[in-house]
Design goal:
By secondary structure, the protein is of the alpha+beta class. It contains three helices and four strands; from the N terminus they run βββααβα. The protein has a single domain, classed as 2-Layer Sandwich (Double Stranded RNA Binding Domain). Helices cover 29% and strands 28% of the residues. This is HicB-like antitoxin of toxin-antitoxin system domain-containing protein. InterPro entries: HicB-like (IPR031807), TA_system_antitoxin (IPR051404), TTHA1013/TTHA0281-like (IPR035069).
Length: 89
């Protein structure tokens, strides 16, 4: 089965205990992390983290429901991050 060109995953943006930086984690892509000095920078950098991590997967992970991720992380910013894998490779 062909891997999709465009993928979207929920990301958690957390600036607690990070000296003001935003750390970005992806619950569906373990060990994939990004960061930014500001929320805007973290949002900008997040697709690159996905693009670097996913080629190692034989099959891309299923994307979780963003509402469930937000419910598990009520004190953090959760948003979908999309990336065109063809454009990043």
């Amino acid at each position: 089965m062909k891997k999709p060109n465009v993928v979207s995953y929920p990301a958690i943006f957390d600036n607690q205990n990070n000296e003001g930086y935003y750390t970005v984690t992806f619950p569906d892509i373990p060990d994939t992390v990004s960061q930014g000095k500001t929320l805007e920078e973290a949002i900008h950098e997040a697709p690159d983290a996905i693009a670097i991590a996913l080629p190692d997967y034989e099959k891309y992970p299923h994307s979780s429901d963003i509402q469930q991720i937000q419910a598990k992380n009520p004190d953090k910013i959760v948003r979908m991050v999309s990336v065109n894998m063809n454009a990043k490779m």
